[in-house]
Design a protein that fits this description.
The chain is of the alpha/beta class and about 475 residues long. About 40% of the residues lie in helices and about 20% in strands. The strands form three sheets. The protein has a nine-stranded mixed beta sheet, with helices on both faces. It has a six-stranded parallel beta sheet with strand order 15-14-13-16-17-18, sandwiched between helices. α6 (about 145-155) packs across α7 (about 200-210) and α11 (about 275-285) packs across α14. It starts with a strand and ends with a helix. The chain binds adenosine-5'-diphosphate.
Length: about 475
Amino acid sequence: MSMLRALAIASEMAPFVKTGGLADVVGALPHALAAENIELRTLIPGYPDVRAALGAGETVLEFDDLFGGPAWIHAARHNGIAIYTLIAPHLYAREGGLYTGADGADYPDNAFRFAALAWAGAQIGLGALDGFTPDVVHAHDWQAALAPAYMHYAERPRPATIVSIHNIAFQGQFPKELLEPLRLPPRAFDIDGVEYYGAIGFLKAGLQLADRITTVSPSYAREIETPEFGMGLEGLLRARADRVSGILNGVDEETWDPATDAHLETRYDHWSLPSRARNKAALQKRLRLRVDPDAFLIGVVSRLSWQKGLDLLLDVLPQFMRGRAQLALLGAGDKTLEEGFVAAEAAHVGRVGVHIGYSEELAHMIQAGADAFLVPSRFEPCGLTQLYALRYGAVPIVSRVGGLKDTIVDANEMALQADVATGLQFSPTTADALAIALREAEGLFEDAETWRKIQVNGMKTDVSWRNPARRYAQLFRDAVAAAQSV
Ligand code: ADP
């Protein structure tokens, strides 16, 4: 297999900057693809945290004026991986978050902040760097999605292009008056170009002009071709359906391994499941729950937003709390949901334990201590927490959508008989269906032998990057071969 060179463009990359699953994928792919003989270098914005983490790099490219100020590309290495950072102080040296200021509102110049990233990536794609011209450019989400457009309108030999959708809810839409300031030619403002409902759509442009489109699960790839999930882009995706594929995310097996996890009271694997009980007790203590080995303890670690469906859990909580059930919830987000769960804790003292905020340690403790792990999302492109739950023996209870549908084997009669079940799925994503699933899960939990089998099946499931990396590698090679044959 010949060596392939690829450039990823993304606005987040673990471990440097992260607001969601996107960062984990972008951080993991260079390592995973190295095993497939693909050299993947990654271009990310030079936010202050990134610059601090990577130190002074070598300047490999300079721009006199990149949308209002000078900019540079620095090359650095981290754990054997090549990283390019776009240093543009007028765009990235900010006090607030990656996308929003301290007041929580989007930065007013986000169009330029991320067009700059895509532009710089496009220049690398077109051969601006000495010694590294990629065969394929892989743009992640709307922030990078103009890169295929810039290369398309440059009308020069270009690499194969791929756009990946991590969450189609975020599309990057900006007024049409920005066309020229964004360095897009007048002809780009067209239904076959960047035009999107009378405005400029960054993600739309990428989906229209890239050679291939991926998203993070096969089911989500199909769902986004429908009005219910496509959020306005379903027509385009249907028209280009032969270019769309879904590849699941893997998990970071070093960070998420119950056999070595330093956050746990007791480490364990599927041979030593009984010692998991000590983690359950530790979690119960930590969240002020009654320490009861026989309680049916449900864990949740999530952003609290409409997408995640946790309002449904609030709806069914009063009836669910009648049995031996307990809830351990870690999350932050919508104020109404936060207040709802704090009130639920007060109403069910010792039965509901809530921590509002972000805590890496508690996230691990919940995976290792809860009997079941609940993800009732209304939509879920891939989802990572149910994959961690599989590894940790917390039986996932998930809505049957997107990546949740693709990663959990529902404990229906046949799956139980064949001993392949790894969790429970429910559908539709409603309070009634959730209530039924919780009751069913509690019934299975009372059958200790069956429950243990489901746990062990989950823990043995391969949720590593090996399979996904193979699929990305194949996709990269196919895209390059197709681009060369035109
Ligand atoms: P999304 O990216 O939509 O939020 P994912 O399931 O893909 O959902 O990824 C969520 C990631 O964020 C997981 O690694 C999860 O453990 C972590 N996470 C979410 N909320 C919290 C929290 N309050 N504290 C710690 N980790 C959290």
